Amino acid sequence: MRLIDTHAHLSDLEDREDVVSRAKETGIGAIVAVGANLETNKATITWSEAFPEYVYPALGIHPTEWTQDNVPITLQYIEEQIDRITAVAEIGLDYWYRDARKNKDVRERQRQIYVDQLQFAKEHDKPVSVHGRGSWRDALDLAVQHGPENVVFHWYSGSLEILAEILDRGYLISATPAAEYSRNHRAALAEAPLECIMMETDSPVYLRNRRRPSEPSDLVITLRALAKLKEASEHEVARVTTENAKNFFRLSADSIEYIKRR
Ligand SMILES: [Zn+2]
């Protein structure tokens, strides 16, 4: 079985060697590691240097992770690393975030930073992984106006109407371990064709049903839940979603090949 974790915050995990060896034992052939601010972007690069051809770095500024003074410095850092990064991520909007809920200036600033990164990704022909909690409409519209061709709406949990537009545009959505329990997320995953879905863990997001933080080897939770939802075999879901991820992130086939057979 060949799996790709397309969105993990490895910078927030410890015990690097153990995390990666458990991921490999689970059949994970590649991890796209996402950054969120200057510090985690730098740590993401360090992870990718420690595990070349296995951890693929994606750098970005997350909508809840910026402060006024670090944005230009972080954008400059991302630009310096452009040739080695696989994608621009994690970027997007979050209108449920406490400060954004209360303050329209915060939401406006989120949009500016998001648009800057969409344009940057388009200019450099990099895929983007988009966070859109409470803001899927704007996240989609701005991606259409300013973004690159390859856009994935990570952990999509918006309406089925917006989902239809996402799929019409040829964009993807990603499934997380919340595919086990989240009503809106499950509805979207049931609706979207498997050819439009990638899998991820969003590690170390807390696994509600297991009462612990996640790591990439928990991608099997996503796999099992998605296979159930799609009434398909785990093998088939793994095959299609891995193919989707390879194409979306343009990962070379060689790097995924050595994966342990089960
Ligand atoms: Zn994330």
Describe the structure.
By secondary structure, the protein is an alpha/beta fold. The protein is 46% helix and 16% strand. It is built from 11 helices and 10 strands. It has helices at 16-26, 38-50, 71-80, 98-102, 104-123, 136-146, 160-168, 183-191, 219-230, 234-249, 253-257, and strands spanning 3-8, 28-34, 55-59, 87-92, 128-131, 151-153, 172-175, 197-199, 206-207, 212-213. The protein has an 8-stranded parallel beta sheet with strand order 1-2-3-4-5-6-7-8. A two-stranded antiparallel sheet has the order 9-10. α8 (183-191) links the parallel β7 and β8 (197-199). α5 packs parallel to α6. The model is unreliable at 258-262 (pLDDT under 50). Zinc ion (ZN) binds at residues 7, 9, 34, 90, 202.
Brief synopsis:
Helix content is 46%, strand content 16%. It is α/β, with parallel strands linked by helices and 262 residues long. Helix 5 packs parallel to helix 6.
- Please give the largest β-sheet: 8 strands, parallel
Strands side by side in the biggest sheet: 1-2-3-4-5-6-7-8
Q: How are helices and strands ordered from N to C?
A: EHEHEHEHHEHEHEHEEEHHH
Any idea what the shape is? globular
Average of pLDDT? 95
Low-confidence stretches: 258-262
Total helical elements: 11
Classify the secondary structure makeup into a structural class: alpha/beta
Ends distance: 6 Å
Strand content: 15-25%
Each distinct ligand? zinc ion
Helix content range: 40-55%
Number of strands: 10
What is the gyration radius calculated from CA atoms?
A: 17 Å
